[in-house]
Amino acid sequence: MKLSAALIFFAATWGASLAVSAASAAGAGSGDVSGIWWTNNYSSEIRPMGGGALPFTPAGSDAYRKNAAGLKDGTVEDAARKFCVPDGIPRILATPYPFQIFQSPGFVTIVYEQNHVFRTIPLDRPVPKDEELVAYPYYSGNSFGHWEGDTLVVVTKGFNEKTFIDASGLPHSDQLHVTERIRTTNGGKTLEDIATVEDPVMFAKPWSARFVYDLHPEVRIDTAYICGEKHRDISRVRGVPK
User: Fold this and answer.
1) Is residue 47 a contact partner of residue 54, using CB atoms and an 8 Å limit?
2) How far is residue 92's CA from residue 196's CA, in Å, rounded to a whole number?
3) DSSP of 187-228, one letter per residue?
4) d(C-alpha 65, C-alpha 146), whole Å
5) Mean pLDDT confidence for 159-175
6) Are 22 and 219 in contact (CB under 8 A)?
7) How far is CA 35 from CA 6, 53, 173, in A?
8) 39 near 96, Cβ under 8 Å?
9) How many CB atoms lie within 10 A of CB 49?
C-alpha cells in the first residue's frame, strides 16, 4: 500500500511538472512564433524599411565601396558562400531557404537550413555588457531574448568581423548590435521580423529592415545543405538568381 501511494504521488507530481513544462514551452504568458517559415522574396541587399539611403559614416561608406568592388573582382571572398560559415545577423534573416523556430522552457532556438546555422536564444537573462563579450566573438553573435506581449525581442551582439550585413558586402564592425522584434500576424500564418542595426563605426544612426515569412508546416528542414552544390529548389522565391 505504501508503495502504491508513493507511485500515485510520483505520477501526480510528474504529471503536474510536465503540464507546467508544456505550458512554458508553448510560451505561456507570451507569444508563439514556433513553426517552419519560408520567405517569398529574396534580395542580395538589405536596406532600410520605408526606403531612403543607408546612413553611412565616412568609414562605413569607404568599407562598403571596397567590399562591393572586391566581391566583384574576386579580391574579397564571401566566406559564407565559399566555406559555408554562418552568414551572421542580419544577413541570415534574408535567407531564401526555410528555417524552423522551436520554443522550450527558457529558450528559443532557430535552425536555418542554409549553412546549418543554429541560434540558441536564452530568455529573460541579463544582457551582458559589450566588454564582457569581447572574448566570445561569434559569426552569429550572442543573442538574448525576452517577450513583450506577443513579440519576441532579441538583442544580439558580440560579433566577429568575418561576415557582411548582406550579400552585397554591407560592412559592420565588432560594435554591431542587432535588435529583432519577432511576431506572428495574419492569424499565425505570417512571421514578421523587424531588425534594427546599430554600429557607430559604420553607420551614423540606427536603421531598421523588415523581413516577412509564411508558415509552411508541410516543409521539413533538410540537413544536407552544402553551399555551392545543388540543393532544395528555391525557384519559388522571387528575386533568387536563376
Assistant:
1) yes
2) 14
3) GGTEEEEEEEEE-TTTBSS-EEEEEEEEE-TT----TT--TT
4) 37
5) 97
6) no
7) 39, 34, 32
8) yes
9) 14
Closest-CA residue to 179 (of 157, 154, 203, 159): 154
Task: Print burial letters for 90-121: b (CB count within 10 Å at least 16), e (below 16).
Answer: bbbbbbbbbbbbebeeeebebbbbbbebebeb
* Distances from the Cα of 199 to the Cα of 39, 203, 204, 208, 235, angstroms: 26, 6, 8, 12, 34
Written in H, E and C, the secondary structure of 151-187 is EEEEEEECECCCCCCCCCCCCCCCCCEEEEEEEEEHH
**Which amino acid would we find at residue 144?**
F
Q: What is the CA radius of gyration of the chain?
A: 20
pLDDT of the residue at 125? 93
DSSP code string of 52-115: ----B-HHHHHHHHHHHHHHHHTSS--HHHHT-----TTGGGG-SS-EEEEEETTEEEEEETGG
CA 3 to chain centre: 50
Nearest to 29 by CA among 146, 142, 136: 146
- For 142-179, b/e burial (b = at least 16 CB within 10 A) is bbbbbbeeebbebbbbbbbeebbbbbbbbbbebebbbb
Predicted local distance difference test score (pLDDT) of residue 30:
79
- The tens digit of pLDDT for each residue in 110-143 reads 999 999 999 999 999 999 999 999 888 999 999 9
Q: Mean pLDDT over residues 97-121, rounded?
A: 97
